[in-house]
């Protein structure tokens, strides 16, 4: 419990360089600086010329309590703290808001203003909080820059979904200051799950009818992969047991590929004894053909009857072990979400369940975003709609909080 609460103040004395670029969301930088300082961080602000069209350096100087840096070739600033010193001073560079133009600059190594130069000159982790119109975010060039930067290890917080300043609705909104601070805190929680093993199932399963055809579902595996990445970021030793998906394997995660529910069950059971936390994100097929055939089924009759049987319920089997890990399930429901999810939590004897409403446009299976209702025996909380990686981090934070409070964690501690 103490370990969890320590995480709340873990920005103490961290050196955060906040880069503000020219978007309407620049006005949120004032609150962002205040929130970062409340969390104990030391903040220095660098503004681009365009940012100063939206907010003055004086305002950010007042809230940061520090000189604000605006130009590359300013003898006075260079004397006080030049771009190289700023690049060295920073432990994290948070660019919020980050415009499409600034993403392009970063992706192509430009160094024609103070902020882009610092980004080139630093070894600090660069974090980007994009803010732009949804068409600009979805533009091919922006998406390619996004992929390119991510592949170099630049982190993205957001963008979020919602109503934009231009009146359009979509992905591109900068995350709220509090959300950004909570994402940063997650980064600093790196060691929270150090020494704890987390086993995750993800993706769909395929149940063969014949060598060519199978029964499966629409799961993309994105949520499970995002959960695996979030757990790995917290320092956990992560094993991911994945059904067939088209996703890149997360870094530093042991990934085992399976196809059927039976293979997934066997892989889970063979790893479960070393597991502290089990998270069942997979959309396991509930039924499989009783008699798959070893040759292609030919269309001979007008009707075809296939008899299906239940597949093993992996989550229930794990929760019923004599010494189960902290066990988290998922529930996808079209209606009465909270009612069915709570019923599943109790029936399957889970510690926590993450429920999502399916059938809503833009969320759930196959989509990049989701919203969750997280339920445990004595309470529940809504995690509003956002990109799956961010949602996964928030879910992991809740799992960690409940895990450290549970007898399952205490049981593992040396007396
Ligand atoms: N699950 C599992 N093994 C199965 C089926 C489901 O581990 N054979 C896990 C999923 O990974 C998910 C949870 O159980 O965490 C979903 O529960 P389930 O009761 O299968 O949900 P539904 O399939 O939606 O059930 P129902 O159709 O009864 O609502």
Average pLDDT figure = 90
Domain module tally: 2
Rg, nearest Å: 24 Å
CATH architecture of the largest domain: 3-Layer(aba) Sandwich
- Strand proportion, as a percent range, falls in 15-25%
Morphology call: elongated
Kindly report the CATH topology of the largest domain.
Rossmann fold
Give me the count of strands: 19
As residue ranges, the low-confidence spans are 1-8
Strand order of the largest sheet: 12-11-8-13-16-17-18-19
Q: What is the count of DSSP helices, taking H or I runs of 4+ residues?
A: 16
- CATH C-level name of the largest domain: Alpha Beta
Distance between the termini: 16 Å
Task: Determine the CATH superfamily of the largest domain.
Answer: CoaB-like
Structural class: alpha/beta
Supply database-style keywords.
binds cytidine-5'-triphosphate, disordered N terminus, Rossmann fold, alpha/beta, 16 helices, elongated, single chain, 19 strands
Describe this entry's structure for a reader:
It is a single chain. Strands 12-11-8-13-16-17-18-19 form an 8-stranded mixed β-sheet, sandwiched between helices. It has a 5-stranded parallel β-sheet with strand order 2-1-3-4-5, with helices on both faces. Strands 6-7 form a two-stranded antiparallel ribbon. Helix content is 35%, strand content 23%. Mean pLDDT is 90; it is low at 1-8. The chain has 415 residues and is of the alpha/beta class. It has 2 domains: 3-187, Flavin prenyltransferase-like (Rossmann fold); 197-412, 3-Layer(aba) Sandwich (Rossmann fold), CATH 3.40.50.10300. α2 (29-38) packs across α10 (177-188) and α6 crosses α9. The two termini are 16 Å apart. The chain contains 16 helices and 19 strands. Bound molecules: cytidine-5'-triphosphate. Residues 201, 261, 280, 282, 284, 286, 311-315, 329-332, 344 line the site of cytidine-5'-triphosphate.
């Amino acid at each position: 419990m103490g370990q969890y609460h320590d995480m709340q103040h873990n920005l103490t004395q961290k050196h955060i360089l906040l880069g503000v670029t020219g978007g309407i969301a620049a006005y949120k930088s004032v609150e962002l600086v205040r929130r970062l300082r409340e969390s104990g961080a030391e903040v220095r602000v660098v503004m681009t010329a365009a940012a100063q069209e939206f907010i003055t350096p004086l305002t950010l100087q007042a809230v940061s309590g520090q000189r604000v840096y605006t130009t590359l070739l300013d003898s006075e600033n260079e004397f006080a703290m030049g771009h190289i010193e700023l690049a060295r001073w920073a432990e994290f560079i948070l660019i919020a808001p980050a415009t499409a133009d600034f993403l392009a600059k970063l992706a192509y190594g430009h160094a024609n203003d103070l902020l882009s130069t610092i980004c080139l000159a630093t070894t600090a982790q660069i974090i980007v909080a994009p803010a732009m119109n949804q068409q600009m975010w979805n533009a091919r060039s922006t998406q390619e820059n996004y992929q390119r930067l991510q592949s170099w290890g630049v982190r993205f917080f957001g963008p979020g979904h919602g109503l934009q300043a231009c009146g359009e609705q979509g992905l591109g909104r900068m995350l709220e200051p509090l959300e950004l601070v909570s994402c940063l805190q997650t980064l600093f929680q790196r060691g929270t799950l150090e020494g704890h093993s987390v086993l995750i199932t993800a993706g769909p399963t395929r149940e063969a009818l014949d060598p060519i055809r199978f029964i499966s579902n629409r799961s993309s595996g994105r949520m499970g992969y995002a959960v695996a990445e979030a757990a790995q970021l917290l320092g956990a030793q992560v094993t991911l047991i994945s059904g067939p998906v088209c996703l890149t394997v997360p870094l530093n995660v042991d990934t085992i590929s399976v196809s059927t529910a039976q293979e997934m069950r066997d892989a889970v059971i063979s790893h479960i004894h070393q597991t502290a936390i089990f998270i069942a994100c997979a959309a396991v097929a509930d039924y499989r053909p009783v008699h798959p055939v070893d040759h292609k089924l030919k269309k001979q009759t007008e009707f075809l009857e296939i008899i299906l049987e239940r597949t093993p319920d992996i989550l229930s089997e794990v929760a019923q072990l004599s010494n189960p890990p902290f066990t988290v399930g998922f529930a996808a429901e079209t209606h009465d979400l909270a009612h069915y999810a709570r019923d599943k939590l109790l029936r399957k004897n889970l510690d926590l369940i993450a429920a999502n409403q399916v059938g809503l446009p833009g969320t759930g299976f196959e989509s990049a975003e989701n919203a969750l209702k997280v339920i445990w025996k004595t309470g529940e909380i809504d995690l509003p709609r956002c990109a799956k990686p961010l949602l996964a981090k928030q879910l992991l934070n809740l799992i960690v909080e409940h895990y450290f409070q549970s007898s399952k964690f205490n049981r593992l501690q040396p007396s």
